[in-house]
């Protein structure tokens, strides 16, 4: 039997779209979305092994980091009539230097361990089996995603071993979701690596709250529960990606949660949906959950309305005038990047304007946001009601 082991999910001979199609996409709900497999899966340290039988049938094994020792969960996805055994999968993976602790078949019988914790009148905890299916439908509602871009329900099982799987419930129905994967193979920059271990961390992949339940602190409480559970595992860092032009998310990630960002990915996801009508560029949020900065935020939550005025920040350069112009030669101690107040509305009302906003902010963020230049830390406001992302020198952030 031929086999192909793909390091970091990248290999010129394997096309993700073709492989997914051979495995039944877009009508196989057990498959992961294409944008996840192309963009995020390699970054978390994921691998793909393909077993090819003589009759042409394929078994694809998607390897997810499972623990800090370098073990993987091997999630099996088969084309019809493929019959590779679990023992053969383990033997091949081990001989290839990829230790596997769990062979996991998406079509098998799974265990769901629901938990419950009442926080501000909302029940938060792990989903049961029925809620795992409802989580998939909630994704559809929040993002307007088509069937092929939804995550499979079975990954919320005990056997798969997600790093985080949480739902927020009200009146017995899921109104919010948060889930993420373990991530390996990354270092923190500079002096941060001396304080925190970033080699094994959590990639928080998806968080959403139904439209009629937003702005009630549910997202903050989901993240707090994630931090509590992740700390208990001895992990220092949680990552996620976010659209830099979504003001409510920026306020949550920086001002409320104390996240920082020194990495930017223009055109990170190759898709379009209701909330992404133009290039889906993303900030990479770094959440140092054991830092004084984050501990203070979680202990004493701040209101999203408590934004500092840009005039309070000394030695600062505003590097763009909305979507009209920008500069790449700022030499100040701090920078400010202007973002729209209602990014979703801009995309709906004026696609040409949204494209201009993305183009200008892509240029300034890609140029300035990196560990040796500027790190995003906060949302600011000015007297005219305009909003900005504050960029500081990493060495000047005092509470990390």
List strands and helices in order, with pairings.
Layout: E1 2-6, H1 16-22, H2 34-40, E2 47-52, E3 58-65, E4 72-78, H3 86-95, E5 100-105, E6 117-119, E7 122-125, H4 129-143, E8 164-170, E9 173-184, H5 192-195, E10 200-209, H6 218-232, E11 237-242, H7 247-256, E12 264-269, E13 280-288, H8 292-299, E14 308-309, E15 316-318, E16 320-321, E17 325-326, E18 334-339, H9 343-349, H10 351-368, E19 375-381, E20 387-392
Parallel strand pairs: 4-5, 10-11, 14-19, 15-18
Antiparallel strand pairs: 1-2, 2-3, 3-4, 6-7, 7-8, 8-9, 9-10, 11-13, 12-13, 16-17, 18-20, 19-20
Helix pairs in contact: 9-10
How far apart lie the N and C ends?
51 Å
Number of helices: 10
CATH-defined architecture of the domain at 2-105: 3-Layer(aba) Sandwich
Q: Detail the poorly predicted runs.
A: none
The total beta strand count reads 20
Percent range for β-strand residues:
25-35%
CATH topology of the domain at 2-105: Aminopeptidase
Order of helical and strand elements: EHHEEEHEEEHEEHEHEHEEHEEEEEHHEE
Order of strands, main sheet, comes to: 6-7-8-9-10-11-13-12
Helix content: 25-40%
Explain what the structure shows.
By secondary structure, this protein is of the alpha+beta class. The chain has a domain of 104 residues: Aminopeptidase (3-Layer(aba) Sandwich). Helix 9 packs across helix 10.
Q: In short, what is this structure?
A:
Helices cover 25% and strands 29% of the residues. The protein contains ten helices and 20 strands.
């Amino acid at each position: 039997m031929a086999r192909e082991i793909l390091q970091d999910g990248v290999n010129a001979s394997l096309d993700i779209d073709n492989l997914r199609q051979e495995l039944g996409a877009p009508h196989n709900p057990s498959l992961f979305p294409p944008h996840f497999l192309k963009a995020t899966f390699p970054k978390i340290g994921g691998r793909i092994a393909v077993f090819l039988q003589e009759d042409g049938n394929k078994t694809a094994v998607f390897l997810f980091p499972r623990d800090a020792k370098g073990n993987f969960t091997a999630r099996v996805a088969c084309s019809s009539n493929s019959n590779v055994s679990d023992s053969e999968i383990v033997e091949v993976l081990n001989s290839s230097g990829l230790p596997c602790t769990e062979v996991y078949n998406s079509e098998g019988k799974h265990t769901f361990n629901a938990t419950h914790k009442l926080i501000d009148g909302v029940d938060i905890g792990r989903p049961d089996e029925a809620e795992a299916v409802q989580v998939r439908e909630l994704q559809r509602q929040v993002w307007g995603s088509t069937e092929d871009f939804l995550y499979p329900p079975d990954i919320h099982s005990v056997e798969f071993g997600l790093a985080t799987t949480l739902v927020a419930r009200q009146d017995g129905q899921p109104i919010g979701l948060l889930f993420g994967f373990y991530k390996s193979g990354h270092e923190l920059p500079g002096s941060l690596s001396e304080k925190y271990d970033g080699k094994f961390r959590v990639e928080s992949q998806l968080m959403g709250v139904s439209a009629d339940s937003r702005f009630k602190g549910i997202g903050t409480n989901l993240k707090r529960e994630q931090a509590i559970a992740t700390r208990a595992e001895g992990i220092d860092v949680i990552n996620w990606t976010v659209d830099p032009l979504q003001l409510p998310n920026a306020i949550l990630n920086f001002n409320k949660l104390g996240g920082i960002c020194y990495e930017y990915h223009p055109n990170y996801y190759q898709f379009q949906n209701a909330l992404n009508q133009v290039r889906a560029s993303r900030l990479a949020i770094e959440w140092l959950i054991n830092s004084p900065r984050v501990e203070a935020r979680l202990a004493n939550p701040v209101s999203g309305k408590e934004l500092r005025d840009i005039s309070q920040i000394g030695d600062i350069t505003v590097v763009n005038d909305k979507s009209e112009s920008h500069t790449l030669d700022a030499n100040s101690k701090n920078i400010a990047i202007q973002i729209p107040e209602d990014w979703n509305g801009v995309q709906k009302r004026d696609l040409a304007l949204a494209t201009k906003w993305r183009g200008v902010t892509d240029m300034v963020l890609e140029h300035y946001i990196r560990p040796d230049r500027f790190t995003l830390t906060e949302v600011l406001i000015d007297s005219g009601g305009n909003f900005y992302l504050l960029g500081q020198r990493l060495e000047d952030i005092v509470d990390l």
